[in-house]
Amino acid sequence: MKTLMPYATLAGEVTFKVAAAKLDGRDLPLSMLSQQERVVALHQVERQKWDEARLDLRVRIPEAELAEGPWSDVVCVAVLTEGVSNLRTVTRLNRSADGTWVGSPTLARDACRTRAELSVSVVATVDGVPGRIIGGSEENWLVDVLARKPVRQRELHINEVDFGENQKPYEWLHAFKDAPWLVETSGDMPTVHLNTGFEGITELLGSGGSTMEKAVRGLIAAQIATEAWTAMFHSAVSDIEVAEDGSLEWPSGWRDWVLRAMLPDVLPDLSPADALSEIHSRRVETSGWNELQPRIQYAASRRARVAKNLGTAIRELDRSDEGDQ
Amino acid sequence: MSRHADDLPEQLGLLRDAVAARNLTRGVLTGQESPPFVALAREAERIKGAGSRWNVRPLRELFDDARRLHDESGRTGADSWLAPRLHYTLRLTRAEAADPALWNYIALVVAPDYVVWRHLPKTARDGKRPAVTADRFCGPHYKQAFARLWWAAELFRDGDDYRPAVAACRNQDVLNTVLRLDVIDHRPTARAVTRMLEDGIVRTGREVNALATAINAAASTLMYEVLASDEGPDAEAFRYWMDELDMAPPAPRKTLPAGPGDGAIPEGAVDVMATYFEKLFAEAPVRGKEPKDAEEVPIDV
User: Fold this and answer.
1) Domains held by chain A: number
2) Per mean pLDDT, which range of A62-66, A135-139, A215-219, B253-257 is the poorest?
3) Contacts of B132 (CB under 8 A, 6+ apart)
4) How high is the pLDDT of residue A213?
5) Confidence band of A243 (pLDDT split at 50, 70, 90)
6) Per residue in A71-96, pLDDT tens?
7) Could you tell me if A139 and A161 lie in one domain?
8) In 10 A of CB A199, how many CB atoms?
9) Which of A123, A144, A165 is the last residue before a domain boundary?
10) Do both A237 and A205 map to the same domain?
11) Interface residue B287 vs chain A (CB under 8 A)
12) Is the dihedral of CA A75, A80, A83, A85 positive or negative?
């Protein structure tokens, strides 16, 4: 743990992995677990309805350090949380013969809306005080009940709709019927509405085509992504909450990961917590907010890989020019 | 702008944040005009697998009775009346209750007049006409007019006993502060707080806020779930209660209904947390606390 505590905490690392998972007692295919991304995806096409997922955990804690330190009654627990659904379950793990801690926290489908975070804490009695958190995992897992693929960063949700058609529930898009696309960030998931009524756009963004078409497609995709990241960033910043005691809280859901992903590019010299408070104060105090816009735009264009896509397109143009001559 | 129950759609729907936000005009927030019901009904999405659980009428009747039983000056008191009865009538899984679109629909289509009646400030800032803040219609679970009551009942009840939730809702600062803390998702912690309210150990808003700050700060070094373990509610019993809605009578108006029988919170665990919190509270600084107990005027929020 990085925060300084008024009692002895572990210096060594606590690491864990989800070795396997079961849905209602049946094994989840291993392809739905990603050790690299630390994500479990629970949405199987073949089995849409399920009640309970059981995760098989393997935890390593610094055994040698524990044996020598001032801790007693050591327990290791798995914690599953999700903000919007007020989910918080704490499951005790057991120490196995080889020193790893194992256990099977469960997640009820009814208890979780989209994705829960899974972390591990080590708890012990220190200086006569029971229940002290003496260490915890830093690299946590995500358990996604809606995802089919175990990926951390969700792709943008692309919704293809003809803006001109007054189609339910997208009547509001009618007012924008001459726009090729529109980014919406107010809901659960950021969404790009792609106007299929804009002639040629579906074909252009579809698969196939010449290398030139591919280059243009990359350029447009980068343009859409830049707008999406910029909109998401602003939406996330406006969702930072100030607690009763004046401290700031990270927003929940995708807004959390958007901020965490972009703040290092926007305010590169600050730690995540300091960057959060800096961005919040600049926004509410109005001074310094305008100066920050180029940095936000830069961060968004980096996420959207604008430089790479533009470079490719320019090279393609050069090459086609040479071919013409 | 009160709506007659017969004019309402039969079933609840989902109204996405973007749609809700677009329709929260100044006129709606000040209570001078109604949201455009017909347009909203058209833009709403249907709930998959609709059934009697999504009937609008029992909800609307509940809101009407809440208003009838509480006059304007006692409108904050309507919270503790409505919360358990709303939870009893609108039987949701937590995953369903976490969907803001459902609460948007209730606030904008079913009972915008109730939101205005309950949350319109008496006086306005800077000379403008008083207006309800938009997050009472469309906002996080601890702000939205109906979500906060449903969640308070869900998080503070003790199995089928709604009395602790009633105690929680009698104090606006519990709703405003404690409800948003992650630590109260631990049932013995939530119950320890309501017990301190029932016993009169914490009373004023400032005391509640001081206690909340202390509990939350201590939770960064202590794992409450290890100190006081709780097997958690019985998910199957909750399911059964949800499915039983068709057989259940309407929420009684004079007596408290019985909640889901998904298991009482272990008393020993509550004792552990309450003893600890009392100690924390004794040491916690309470803003504006005088040596002799100064009377505090309850604030109408």
Assistant:
1) 2
2) A215-219
3) B29, B30, B31, B115, B116, B119, B120, B121
4) 83
5) confident
6) 999 999 999 999 889 999 999 999 99
7) no
8) 10
9) A144
10) yes
11) no
12) negative
Q: What is the mean pLDDT of chain A?
A: 88
The beta-carbon neighbor of B95 closest among A113, A121, A123 is A113
- Contacts B21 to A, Cβ<8 Å: 186
Q: For residue B147, what pLDDT band results from cuts at 50, 70 and 90?
A: very high
* Contacts for B201 with CB less than 8 Å, ≥ 6 apart: B278, B281
Q: Do A164 and A310 reside in the same domain of the chain?
A: yes
Q: Is the same domain home to A162 and A290?
A: yes
| Average pLDDT of chain B, as a whole number | 90
What are A's interface residues with B at a Cβ cutoff of 8 A?
Answer: 3, 5-7, 51-52, 75, 77, 81-90, 92, 108-113, 121, 123, 129-133, 168-169, 171-172, 184, 186-188, 241, 243-245
- Determine the angle formed by the axes of helices A254-266 and A272-284, rounding to 10 degrees: 90
If one compares A245 and B118, the residue with the highest pLDDT of the two is B118
In a domain, residue A2? The reply is no
Q: Can you tell me whether residue A92 is helix, strand or coil?
A: strand
Same domain, A127 and A19: yes
Q: Which residues of A touch B39 (CB under 8 A)?
A: 171
Predicted local distance difference test score (pLDDT) of residue B299: 45
* A139 and A199 fall within a common domain: no
Q: Distance between CA A47 and CA A57 in Å, rounded?
A: 23
Q: Which of A112, A144, A176 represents a domain boundary (last residue)?
A: A144
pLDDT band at A244 (very low <50, low <70, confident <90, very high): low
Q: Mind listing the pLDDT tens digit for each residue in A161-189?
A: 899 887 777 888 888 989 999 988 877 77
Report the distance separating Cα A244 and Cα B261, nearest Å: 34
A131 contacts B226? CB cut-off 8 A: yes
Per the CB < 8 A criterion, the answer to whether A18 and A55 are in contact is yes
Task: Determine whether the interchain pair A110/B239 forms a contact, defined as Cβ–Cβ distance below 8 Å.
Answer: yes
The domain of A75 spans: 15-144
At B264 the three-state DSSP class reads coil
Is B18 close to A130, i.e. CB distance below 8 A? no
Residue among B44, B141, B222 minimizing CB distance to A133: B222
Shortest CB distance from B235 goes to which of A110, A168, A188? A110
pLDDT score of A191: 87
Measured CA distances, B78 to B166, B173, B176, B199 (Å): 10, 15, 15, 22
* Band of residue A256 on the pLDDT scale cut at 50, 70, 90: confident
- Cα-Cα-Cα-Cα torsion B278, B280, B283, B289, nearest 10 degrees, comes to -70
CATH, residue A40: 2.60.40.10
- Dump pLDDT digits (tens) for B193-248: 999 999 999 999 999 999 999 999 999 899 999 999 998 899 899 999 999 998 89
Is A150 inside any structural domain? Answer: no
Complex ipTM, two decimals? 0.88
Contact status of B89 with chain A (Cβ, < 8 Å):
no
CB B284 within 8 A of CB B207: no
Exposure string of A301-322, with b = 16+ CB inside 10 Å and e = fewer, is bebbbbeebbebbeebeeeeee
B293 pLDDT tier (thresholds 50, 70, 90):
very low
